[in-house]
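User: Could you check the structure of this?
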Amino acid sequence: MTASNPDVAASNPAFEGLDNFRDYGGYAGADGRRVKRGRLYRSAHHARATDPDLEALAGLALSAIVDLRRTDERTRDPSRRHDGFAGQVIENDIHQANEDGYHRLLETSDLSVEAMRDYLVAYYENAPFEPRHIDLYSRYFHALAEAEGPVLIHCAAGKDRTGILAALTHHLLGVAYEDSVADYLLTNDPAHIERRIGLYGDYVQTLRGIRPSDDFLRAALGVDVLYLETAFEAIKARYGSIDAYLEQALGVDAKLKARIEERLLD
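Assistant: Sure, the predicted structure tokens are below.
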């Protein structure tokens, strides 16, 4: 699948310790307009950002950073910020019902590709409705309507929680679903996956005492169109449409949507 945004990496800085970074603007949007580049960024967490990475982030002049991670994740891997960062940081400490599910998978499953895929399908089916995600997603959309500068969203790996929110943003702005999926699948960049395999394998081995297969690690680090489809179908089943979910669950009414479109569409 090829997105209608051929220069997707053109304005992305090269980072040393900040993974899965990209500008997810640039796509054709509603009413023949295009999503502005340099306004919407996504990434993995910033705990391993190097000093040059922080300089590059400073150059983006971010108005807001949305940290979708749980409290324990933020404590384990605290974000680094550049000197003088004055942007809004959106995070919360709301309990997530299945917050221990991932560690249970690593500690008790057979560490097979099937176990990881089954876990991720179930995760995506429930993630849009977690109270902590609803709070964060809602505050993010309100920030989009108010921020003068770019907004960056991230979770731990920048692929699941972040992927759902980026896709919802694309939907709101009228980006074709095919383009949104293509952008989502950029997480599967082989170079990115291979860079992460060793570190992630070490983490699982420390936790479990055995090293999983590379196939398991790739399944854990990558994404699949099935996951995003699962989230969107679950939203439609509960709310009737993505638009209804945005309005009823996240508070993105017509007025707020218009303000976001005005800021982000050319």
